[in-house]
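Thread: quick sanity check before group meeting

JM: Hey all, I'm pulling together slides for Thursday and realized we never actually wrote out the predicted structure for the chain we discussed last week. Dropping the sequence here so it's in one place. If anyone has concerns about the input, flag it before I start.
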Amino acid sequence: MQGIPSSHRPLLVVANHTSWLDIVVISSFLPVVFVAQHEVASWPIFGWLAQLQRSIFVNRGRRQQVHTTVSCIADALASGEVVGIFPEGTSTDGSDIFPFRSALIGAVHETIRRTQHLPAIFIQPVSVAYVGTNRRLAIWAREDDIQFVPHLLQVINLQRIDVALTWGDPIPADLSSDRKVLTIRLEGAIRQLIAEAHR
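JM (edit): ok, ran it. Output follows.
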């Protein structure tokens, strides 16, 4: 692990996404309420675990649902929770990241408007990179043919998974911060962290 989880509260953690394991890796160092795709709730075992840790589920295909999700994130942040999001909106093979979507970053402004006493909210970029000989077996990208349960069993049978987890410098965001500019800055920071992890 490089860097440390921020002590700022509330805190929005923004990470790249290559596997369902990302949530396990990040949560092992910091209790986080994650925003997950709505279908995750129906997955065997992992869906149950996701609901136990108070995940926020989003249906990105429905615009109105995104507004509801932003509201749920703002509620969690306003109560001092750490919330984690994957702005790519899907998982990748880890060789690169997809362009970040900015919609859920809007929860920063919504939280500040609701609380009125918070001048800013900190956003921490985090990169998760699977390295070593079992790298490809740990990754579960959406374009892969393997289903969740076979992949889960494959991971359980691995003797070792090497992960480079890097916590970047927290970025303060206030009402004057442009959501899209913030998103581009976070994407650039995570791209750099991932490149360094794979060197």
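AS: nice. The mean pLDDT is 85. The first strand starts at residue 11 and ends at 15.
JM: adding both to the slides.
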